[in-house]
Each structure stands twice: as C-alpha cells, then as structure tokens.
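Re: NDP structure - here you go.
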Amino acid sequence: MAKIALITGATSGIGEACAKMFAQQGYHLILLARREHLLENLAQDLVNNYGVEVKKIQADVRDKENINYVLDTLTATWKNVDVLINNAGLSQGLEPIQNGCVEDWDTMIDTNVKGLLYVSKMVSNWMVSNKKGHIINIGSIAAKEVYANGAVYCATKHAVDALSKGMRIDLLPHGIKVTAIHPGMVETQFSIVRFKGDENRAKKVYEGFDPLVAQDIADAIWFAVSRPAHVNIDDMLIMPTAQATATQVNRI
Ligand code: NDP
Ligand code: 8X3
C-alpha cells in the first residue's frame, strides 16, 4: 500500500516542492492550505503526472475548530499518515519591537506556533495509534539566531525548534521520528508575504547572490525521510553557500 504524506502550506514554495518530491516517490498526499485554486491546480498536476491520490484540504491552520473538524472527518485510510510536514508559516513585517504591528505578531504566532500545534496534536495521535510516523517541522535560521527587526518571527521559529525537541522526547516511546529542518534564505513567496505584496522590495532580498530554492529543502526533507528505520535526522541547518549567518550574505 502506498505511503501517505500530509503537507501544510502546500500551495507554494517549500510545501509545493515537497508535494512534487513525495508524489515522485509514489506517496499519496493530503495537501492543506488556504488558496483553493492553487490547491486544485497542484492536485491535478500531481494526479496527472505521478498517478498518486491527492486529498485537498482548503483550511487555515489558525482555525482550531475547523482544523480539528477537517482532519477528524478524514477516512481511516487517509488517517494512516506516514509523514507530516509542518511547513505552513510566514513572516509579516520587519520592524523594531517598539514599532511592531500587533496584528502581524498575532498572525505569525497563530500560524507558525499555534497552527503547527493544532495539526500536530491530531496527526501525532494517529501516528501513536498506527505505531509509526515521521514529523518534519520547518524551522529556520531564525530558529537558531535572532536578527534586528525580526524578534517576533525569530521567536516563533525558536518555538518551533523547542517544540521539535519536545515532540521528539514525548513521542520517543512510540517510535515516531521528529526532524527539524532549518533553512537559510530560500527564494519563494516568503518575502513577498513579509512585505505584504511589495514584490520589488522582496526581490532585493535575493539580489547579488544565489539563494536556496525550494527544491533544495525538499531534497533535504526527502533525505531525512528516506533514512533506514533505526536512523533519525534530528536537526538540519541548510544555508546558501553565500550566507554565513542570518544577516551576513556575500553579495556581488
Ligand atoms: P511561501 O510563502 O512560498 O509558502 C508558504 C505556504 O504556507 C503557502 O503555501 C501558504 O499557503 C501557506 N500558509 C501560510 N499561512 C497559512 C495558514 N494560516 N494556513 C494554511 N497555510 C498557510 O513561503 P516558504 O515556502 O518559503 O515558507 C514555508 C516555510 O518555510 C514557512 O514556515 C517559513 O517560515 C519557512 N522558512 C522559509 C524560509 C525562506 O527564506 N523562504 C527560510 C526558512 C524557513 P496559502 O497562502 O494558500 O494558505
Ligand atoms: C526565513 C528566512 O532570513 O528571514 O526564515 O530568517 S529569514
């Protein structure tokens, strides 16, 4: 029977690259995100090109009741999830703490921390019952370092780092793997979202060097998932060659 991966934030960037990678490997997929037309297009593409089954869930990870409902009402077959990729996340704004927008803080904390928890609670219970599973949490270099004007985003990713360690301890008796993947700068829609649609400002973030691309992160995730049963990759920090720290980038 084919394995199943549930990917949050599957409609662009790292999540979309993971969906394609896992489909190539023959996984059936549960794809969760808010933008329905992108989910629909991606699902069609994966079904047509890889012959896998795809369950689309149009949902916002911040909506606790709805997340519980849409996941709980999946059939027993779809609840047989082998791999959960907690990828849905975002940054909003880039300001010093005293000028920060409280609504942006709520959005980041509710999505990156609470949303990840809501999905993880449901799926980890299935994994415990099924006596198998692998949870991949997408952290960031911002989980390891703090940079100017990014305190709240960095705090949410530090939380993902702590949650990954805690999940690994709590799920240890159940044989469930937990891996944290921490990328440096990846050119996706991330900066467009951070700068609220200002594409010119977003483009400048990646000028003068080769940033990571989403496929680089999907490759790393697949490496972690494809290790033998007795091996777990706890934590991986993946940077562009031209990036030494969160803020030091060798631009030409
Ligand atoms: P993108 O903006 O390209 O993708 C983000 C994805 O998350 C989209 O599919 C979006 O879908 C989904 N998403 C956002 N909010 C929600 C929500 N409330 N509910 C459900 N889905 C949501 O960015 P990336 O691919 O770069 O980001 C993926 C992850 O990687 C994030 O956790 C990010 O913090 C992390 N990361 C990114 C780095 C980078 O430099 N790009 C570096 C390090 C980590 P939709 O809008 O359809 O809901
Ligand atoms: C996203 C990348 O550079 O803003 O986690 O920390 S960065």
